[in-house]
Amino acid sequence: MKLHPIVEAVTRRIRERSSATRSAYLEQVDAMAARPPGAQSMGCANVAHAFAGLPGADRIRIVEQKAPNVAIVTAYNDVLSAHAPLARYPDILKDEARRQGATAQVAGGVPAMCDGVTQGAPGMELSLFSRDAIAQGTAIALSHDMFDAALLLGVCDKIVPGLLIGALHFGHLPMVFVPAGPMTSGVSNNDKAKVREQAAQGLVGRQELLAAESAAYHGEGTCTFYGTANSNQMLLEAMGLHVPGTAFINPGDAERELLTREAMRTVLEITKGQRFAPIGRVVDERCIVNAMVALLATGGSTNHLIHWVAVARAAGIVIDWNDFSELSGVVPLLARVYPNGSADVNQFQAAGGPGYVIAELLKAGLMHGDVLTVRNEGPQAFARIPRVEAGQLVWQDAGESGDLSVLRPADAPFSSTGGLKLLAGNLGRSVIKVSAVPEDRHVIEAPARVFDSQEALQQAFKAGELDRLCEENASGGVVCVVRWQGPRANGMPELHKLTPPLAVLQGRGYKVALVTDGRMSGASGKVPAAIHVSPEASAGGPLARVQDGDLVRLDATSGTLAVLVDEDEWSQRPAATMPQALRLANGQGFGRELFAGFRRHALSAEEGACTWL
């Protein structure tokens, strides 16, 4: 199928915009690739230190036989259910490397925090910046310079983007990502959300709420909603950086260990020259566009409008929200997975999963089919689904959708456009996840109620203030503006705890919206939320000028976000400053002091909130 003209035009624009930075990046990649392998060029003391802990046979393979040595960079900890299975992976991978005549070493571990644990807590203010700390940790692990390839073990929200950013700074090496898969299905996401809303209203207590949450999050594997973690996995499939079909196989399934071993075989095939696929060459502008398209087609996490901008920059590629918006206008929505529907990721996988989505997008000319991947067959390899026959992995074409309520073909989609929308106006630039919002809520116009923290909004809800505001004004609604939540203010925490109270207000028939320079979770859904507003309030952005009672219009149909105040009055209105008490509290305790430099140097959300540029 011929490439769609808009996909082609966006790709061309990105290529032209990135010409200088991409060329400089590839020059560095080529220079690194031209160097002799570390084990052959380093001093004897260096080599002896690197291999002192290895069995004698492995030392012989590396030093005398010059066999490939593969780095394992792991984000293992068992606080993250999705990462708990990774404890077993290094031994499996080392065993497979030896079977293939190679060696493997755990080069390093990187931090991995669970946003589900830290939501609404001080630790969430480290979350976004943990991505860049993970990138730095990946670089430290690979800086030993003793490796011919690398396997990257990680799954969740900031971990995959961080690993990928770090990996791209070693773009001369072949690399494959190795996930662990989702937990089996428990209490449905819809039922869990209902209990959360009941708890927000005081209708159930802590015991009932904890029981519901524990029934939803009940075992090893990723959470089963289509949030940032599972969006990561979809994007890696679309970019060709996994063993095909690896993303959503449960940790205990028969395929899982076989796929983990296949990751080692795959990266060794590249290392041994059976194909040319260093990660810096795999991740080009076409690969990045393929990831963007897959995100839009599945209604994925809004967090990736920050993270994949940063990933692209690590490869010398410059993308922005205009690119996402233009692609969203032509990419159809093929998936309904919670919060965009009632299905969880296990049902998504059973209906065809990433293989089906990629097959449909390639067939419709919405993905580049002529790109490098870690497999010989290119993107077509990722349009197939793995299964086990006689103890061996085989791949079969995805075929038809197994459930049209979850996955639909590109010529009969759930929506003709993607799940994300760019908003722009006199309040700045923002994004909204429209795929999860009912159509009658795509336009909200109501007076503003301004909050300086998410806690203040929750207190106003509990006190009945928001109900009264909705009842008293003619619009029958309220636009909650939560500011001082951007990267420079406090690290841009997710404000997922605001979803239940706002959903309750919407359920009572009020017209409610959220406007913030903070983030919402990839699991946030039905309440219209203009998020990532840039520039942020603490950087002099227009949210700092909004006052209680100002009429605000969020229009996801026309793509506008504006305060309806007389233009002269608006231009002369002074900007508020962050309250002194809040300024003093930000960055204090829970290790937040250590991230002061990150906050100080962070770019805007649309620039990826990068701290290293």
The description of the largest β-sheet is: 8 strands, mixed
> Strand portion, in percent?
5-15%
Work out the count of structural domains: 2
Find the count of extended strands (DSSP E, 2+ residues).
Answer: 14
Oligomer: single chain
Question: Could you walk me through the main structural features you see in this protein, from its secondary elements to its overall organization?
Answer:
There is one protein chain. This protein is of the alpha/beta class. It has helices at residues 5-17, 19-33, 38-41, 44-51, 56-63, 89-99, 115-118, 127-142, 159-168, 189-200, 206-216, 228-239, 254-271, 279-282, 285-298, 304-314, 321-328, 345-350, 353-363, 454-462, 465-472, 487-490, 499-507, 567-572, 580-585, 596-601, and strands spanning 69-74, 103-109, 149-153, 175-178, 384-389, 392-397, 420-425, 428-433, 443-451, 477-482, 511-516, 529-534, 551-555, 560-563. The protein folds into two domains: 5-35 and 67-184 and 219-397, no CATH class; 420-607, Glucose Oxidase, domain 1 (3-Layer(bba) Sandwich), CATH 3.50.30. The strands form three sheets. The protein has an eight-stranded mixed β-sheet with strand order 7-8-12-11-10-9-13-14. A four-stranded parallel β-sheet has the order 2-1-3-4, with helices on both faces. It has a two-stranded antiparallel sheet with strand order 5-6. Helix 9 (159-168) runs parallel beside helix 16 (304-314) and helix 12 packs across helix 15 (285-298). The longest helix has 18 residues, at 254-271. The model has no long low-confidence stretch (mean pLDDT 93).
